[in-house]
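Just curious. Protein, please.
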Amino acid sequence: MTQLDGFAFSVAPMMDWTDRHCRSLHRLMSRRARLYTEMVTTGAIIFGPRERLLGFDAGEHPVALQLGGSDPAALAQCARIGADYGYDEINLNCGCPSDRVQNGAFGACLMRQPALVAEGVAAMKAVVDIPVTVKCRIGVDDQDPREALWAMAASCVDAGADALVVHARKAWLQGLSPKENRDVPPLDYPLVHELKRAFPGTPVAINGGIGDMAAAQAQLQHVDGVMVGRAAYHTPGLLLEVDPVLFGQAPPVADQFELVQAYEPYVAARLEEGARLADMTRHMLGLFAGWPGARLWRRHLAMESVKRGAGLSVLREALAHVRRPAGEDADAAA
């Protein structure tokens, strides 16, 4: 496995979404997609419940730890901890626009401080052997996107960053909510394509508004990788296309039905450890989007998985509501 295996397609780090249960589900659909943790702040890692924050299943590889922070020494300490935990990559968040990161002067705020980001990258590179990457926006607020993005990229590359992931939208730190920041600022894909041409030796992935494999393939004509966020989460069946379409390999499971069966041992093990069924099934609600019975699948899981003692029977009962679309039944029969 190369150090950046799976960089051609990755699932974005998403707060409250891409936890270890979600990543384990996604890995069952693609051996090659690169998976990311939710952003974890340096303070939480240094002072918080480390195993709960950083623990992951060995089957998730390749998996990257995304850090939130701005102090180079703290970033280096946490990068070393992440590497010791077995992560395949350390990614620095320079794109999140939430109030939380603004109060902590990190995330998208760092678009204004490329020199500080470079210090953080250099500090992390000095203590780990795994790739150190940066995820950023094309700018914040009134910054000129080309100037801001080029300054960030040049600083990171000079500091030794192994790759850049660019969300092709500005972040507006004042006036827009985090949700609005994912939709309202216009996408500028050509600017990210231009960045790749300007830094040909640095792997560049693009993020933002990529909703299906056709869009991903179109982007890969210009950059080295695509990072898909909400589409991969809300319609996770998309991940079944990654290995065959991008890597020429069969997916680990044939379809969503096989996926549910393959996920059952993981669910059973976590239930035995005391996890709630709902914490795992919430990541599966969109699994059968567009299939007959999908609404009943979602309703059953949403209502029954939260009940005390809910177990695998709830998952199986929900699955009984779903049928393959007519065309797929014909394909299966053939």
Remarks:
- The chain has two domains: 9-247, 256-333.
- The CA atoms of residues 252 and 258 lie 9 Å apart.
- The domain at 256-333 is CATH 1.20.120 (Four Helix Bundle (Hemerythrin (Met), subunit A)).
- The longest strand covers residues 34-41.
